[in-house]
Design goal:
alpha+beta, Aminopeptidase, globular, 5 strands, single chain, 4 helices, 5-stranded mixed sheet
């Protein structure tokens, strides 16, 4: 797998991957999420390509205090090959290069497999409650 920065022509493939990996919830409009990402740290929006097929993605961010990870996805047919780990290593390296001291991410509490994956990468439960407030409603 080759990791590269996202290109706008890959939007359809990325969105299809996110749906396949069940990352899209009704309050998310994936096209709008991509458009927003391209305005901030677009160099932290990465895709993984294997044999000319997009099989992985991750969005990283850094706002000056904490780094964030969103939309880590690996096509289910390509899991258990270390691709998720490779995507995380690359985005972490890029976030660290911006001077970031800590990365946060959110996982649905019921997603035990993903929680274990992140724990295997050194992430731990910060014992906080994630709160959110929509400032803009997206149409699905």
């Amino acid at each position: 797998m080759v990791i590269t920065e996202y290109k706008e022509k890959q939007a359809g493939e990325v969105i299809a991957l996110w749906f396949k990996c069940q990352l899209i919830v009704p309050s998310n409009n994936p096209q709008r999420d991509i458009e927003r990402k391209l305005n901030v740290d677009r160099d932290l929006f990465l895709v993984g390509i294997d044999k000319e097929k997009l099989i992985a993605s991750v969005m990283g961010g850094y706002e000056g205090h904490r780094g964030w990870i969103n939309y880590l996805a690996v096509d289910p047919a390509h899991r258990r090959n270390g691709y998720g780990r490779l995507m995380m290593q690359e985005v972490e390296k890029r976030i660290r290069a911006k001077g970031c001291p800590k990365i946060n991410l959110q996982v649905r509490a019921t997603n035990d497999g993903v929680i274990k994956f992140y724990q295997s990468l050194g992430y731990s439960d910060d014992n906080v409650i994630g709160l959110g407030k929509r400032l803009e409603e997206d149409e699905p």
